[in-house]
């Protein structure tokens, strides 16, 4: 019993004296090791280190990229990316289905009420609706955001996840509460998307955009040194744009040659803004700054032509020069090129004379109506560069120059040149280099003929503003008749001015309707179908 009672006293938790001393030494060594090397603190299980949104590489799938970026920005509840619902055809139940419905009427009514309640909550939840190309998650072609406020951080996320969407063509922001700051951020986002995408359609309906916002959008359309080349349609309906804002939009249309469709319906535009819009759609006077920029572009263009192909102009001067070069051979032509180059290198004064001549050449081109030089060799270079600008190799420029030689009349050459310019206007030609007209010491451009659709319904335009649009429509009618034999845009095909501050029986409005009737392609097709129905 004594041995059994002593056993609990000799418990293993009471170490021997020697063991206790050694364990104390081990403890001191552990303390020193802990002081020398701090222990690494591991994150709790299930938690990850916060990741930076700048480090994330977008995959091109909007649903995945947007969710990941929102999470990294700290959003716990964010809009979901969903497919845009399409309208379903009307459903006509059959007799058998109606019989089954009457049998299960109580349960059916309960499930329908529950589904309808859930659908209502889902409807009011913020979402990003997308339309896909061939049901591919990487081929988002349209984005629709409606009814919830888009913050600046959301636009920052869009600036990162939208450029990888190579198929994106349309952005619709309807009633998203844009402010001056968020609209500025969005306008800065457009060039970033345009470098990788082709945003062709933009809708900013019902966003309380005022004159300040219209100024930002007008500058996005075009300035003296930049121009949007991808946007085709712009919807600014149901906003607060007044005369000043309409003037900014008109300034953007001066040098823009890509926008085809513009809606300013349900705004606050009066006669002053209407006259501004009507002015840029017919021949308008260039400002002093635009004239100076035009001359600079002409000088720069001439310098690029001479540095790019110094011998091509000499071969294009006359047919006899080309025949002589073929008879003598390539060696003699290269020898002549070398002697010409050495002579120009020896005489530095000639460089100053060339600059003076180029400045005089630019002035002569300003004075001539078609923008061509009165000398023999220069018109051929103008034809070559305006018809095929951007083509570096010389053989591609020769066919266009040959076309100019075959047509003997100067008027026919200008018509051919103008038609070729219009075909590639959105890709090559700066609008300031278009043919101009000189009147009373002033320079006039033909105006914007690319815009086809203009909607100004429900503004505050009176008969004074109508007179401006009447003059525009009459001018474009004359311009289209003069260009009937050539290709290119001819001006407005659809102009809506209804529900403004004038009577529907107004004479100016009646004349506009009469002139625009044969230009409207939809109404022309309807008249053709009616004629076919009466005379099959």
UniProtKB/TrEMBL annotation:
It holds the Pfam family LRR_6. It comes from the Eukaryota. Transmembrane segments: none annotated. Residues 369-378 have a biased composition (Polar residues). InterPro entries: Leu-rich_rpt, LRR-containing_protein_71, LRR_dom_sf. Residues 1-56, 84-104, 301-404 are annotated as: Disordered. SUPFAM superfamilies: RNI-like. Residues 28-38, 301-325, 357-368 have a biased composition (Basic and acidic residues). Residues 1-18 have a biased composition (Low complexity). PANTHER family: LEUCINE-RICH REPEAT-CONTAINING PROTEIN 71. This is Leucine rich repeat containing 71. It comes from Pongo abelii (Sumatran orangutan).
